[in-house]
Amino acid sequence: MAGHEHGAVPVPIGPFGPTLVASSVALGREHVLVRTNTSQLYAWGRGTEGQLGLGTLVASARTPQHVQALGSSCLAVAAGADFSLALTLAGAVYQWGGPHRVPTPQHVVLNEVVHVERPARDQERAQGFTEAYASARAKKQAERQAKVAETVVPVRVVFVTASGSTAAALSDKGALYQWGAATFELPPTGAAFVLGSNRRIRRVAIYGDRTGVLSDCGTLRVYETAKLTQQGSAAKPLEVVHDVVDFAVAARAFLCTKRRAQHMAYDVEVPPPTLLHDTAT
User: Fold this and answer.
1) Could you tell me which residues come within 8 angstroms of residue 51 by beta carbon, excluding any fewer than 6 positions away?
2) Dist CA 50 CA 93 (whole Å)
3) DSSP of 164-219
């Protein structure tokens, strides 16, 4: 065959086979990430920016190399142009490579501020200070603050994706976190993008300067990637498409207009959140 003569016939890549099965693949500009059925991560290709996660900067790796820093805890992978992302079984996100040339997976700190009820003893103690307020409105606000406290807790992530120099993570509460490849720590407030009216984000797609977000009611919103990264929930959509049936088709149609779609990263169906919290703002 002509294809055989030109060496175009696919050949198996070790160490994958009947025992060690490649279950998912992510492609960067010049590197490859593969998650196996044993939750291990393998990488090969260009490594000058540290995108292989091998602990040291290497020019390239011609064969798959085990990313030992993650052990057997990898749930999902994603690749930007020159950086990599991994989601662990515990719901944590790790990132490496990129403009800082980080060769070892680093934990991306994703936090959220939640409100919790104070213990009764603390409420009584705080209640005593409210008597000093002359204004009834100020007193009411102080009483409310006496009952509820703010605390910062880690976000549990259920999906990660990347494209170009942008990374994104979707939480189990349906909130989207998006950041640049040079960032490894996000602030607890202002970083999350959430939909109002008790809606959750179910699907995410990034292609260059466009990000598509699909809600659980079938509405696709298209944003400028940079503005969504910088402004979070304050960002305004460029387009809104209702009653989307096929997310992949819609994403290509509205995110890739007049462009090739070869570098677009979009997900498979994200499972329903395990924690049933509303994401209303």
Assistant:
1) 28, 31, 43, 45, 79, 82, 83, 84, 96, 97, 98
2) 17
3) TTEEEEEETTS-EEEEETT--B--SSS-EE--STT--EEEEEEETTEEEEEETTS-
Average pLDDT of the chain? 79
Residue 149 has pLDDT above 70, yes or no: no
Alpha-helical (H) ranges within 54-110 are: none
Distance CA 215, CA 205 (A): 12
Distance, in Å, from the CA atom of 215 to the CA atom of 237, rounded to the nearest integer, reads: 13
Look up the pTM and report it: 0.76
Q: Kindly report the number of other CB atoms within 10 A of residue 269's CB atom.
A: 9
Q: How far apart are CA 130 and CA 49, in angstroms?
A: 56
CA 207 – CA 190 distance, rounded (Å): 23
- DSSP string across 254-278: HHSTTS--TT-EE-SPPPPPSS---
Beta-ladder partners of 26: 33
Cα 26 to the chain's mean position, in Å? 14
**Kind and range of the H or E run holding 24:** strand 22-27
